[in-house]
Amino acid sequence: MWLSLIEKREALLAIYQDEVPDLENLFLHEIKITTGKDLIINIRFDLGEFPKKIPKKWLDRNINTVQITLDLIQAKIEEIDLEKAISSVDSIIIEQISDYKRITLRDASKAEVLTIRSTWIYLSSLNGYQNTYNLS
Asked: Which residues of the chain carry a pLDDT beneath 50?
């Protein structure tokens, strides 16, 4: 599972416990590239599933969406398809390939939009918010 390849994953485990969702039916908010000695790529997105047991403070605030940011350290962009809209990303695949991790962002048709290799992946933030766009 993708979670075993992520560092600092404790907050995600605390919220979802044993039911951490796959990285499907996502809403991609941002991809940020920071240059320097090591390339860092931040990917911020909403998870497709909400936890079954939510913190009381989230209940009080009517939180209905979980958003996380992953930091890819010592990253390298392997492939990018500029013909496809980055905003069409629907799922993320994270896999271990020998001494690095490959992160593939796919659209709803499962076509690869962006492929990145990274030495480390950190969960840098986990937030809950009220997504008024998804309210019925």
From this structure: 135-136
